[in-house]
Amino acid sequence: MGKNGVSVTLRVLLRPIASAKQRAMQNPERPDIHSESFLKILMRRQLRLSILCAAAFLIGVLGLPLANYFFPDLMAARVFGFTVTWLILGIGFFPVVWLIAWLFIRRSIALEQAEVAEACGAVSGKVDGKVSE
Fold it and tell me: Which range marks the domain in which residue 48 is found?
């Protein structure tokens, strides 16, 4: 490299790094994936998803004792040699927990990919999946 190439490299390396807030203010239509606001939006969406999954789990956990209390005859009925309570607890509960976990993971990954796609789309000039020219 010549003398000019070295001075350009030094200027690039020595210039102050803009904070996330400054970068967002420089280009407000482009989301910065490293900014606090971007991360807060993603975290808020994931919190909403977590609360929904926790609520579904609690409905399952609290629903069985409540069903035993309010419908004792139904829950004491025998199906395949088991009472309905034990059938739900032994066979039905585990797949429900797996289903909740699978849905959570799938939706969480989809949220992250949507946020990244939105940020990358704005950075590369894409609008609605199409590259603007």
Answer: 32-131
- Tokens for 58? 């609690």
Cα atoms in the Cβ-side hemisphere of radius 13 Å centred on 82: 10
Other beta carbons within 10 angstroms of residue 97's beta carbon come to 13
Query: Is the residue at 120 inside a domain?
Result: yes
Structural domains counted in the chain: 1
Let me know: does 38 contact 32? Beta carbons within 8 Å. yes
Per-residue pLDDT 10s for the chain (133 aa) are: 445 544 444 444 444 554 545 544 444 555 576 778 878 888 899 999 999 999 999 998 999 999 999 999 999 999 999 999 999 988 989 999 999 999 999 999 999 888 888 777 755 554 455 544 4
- What DSSP assignment string belongs to 14-29? HSPPPPHHHHHHHSTT
Neighbours of 59 (CB within 10 A): 12
Q: Give a yes or no: residue 18 inside a domain.
A: no
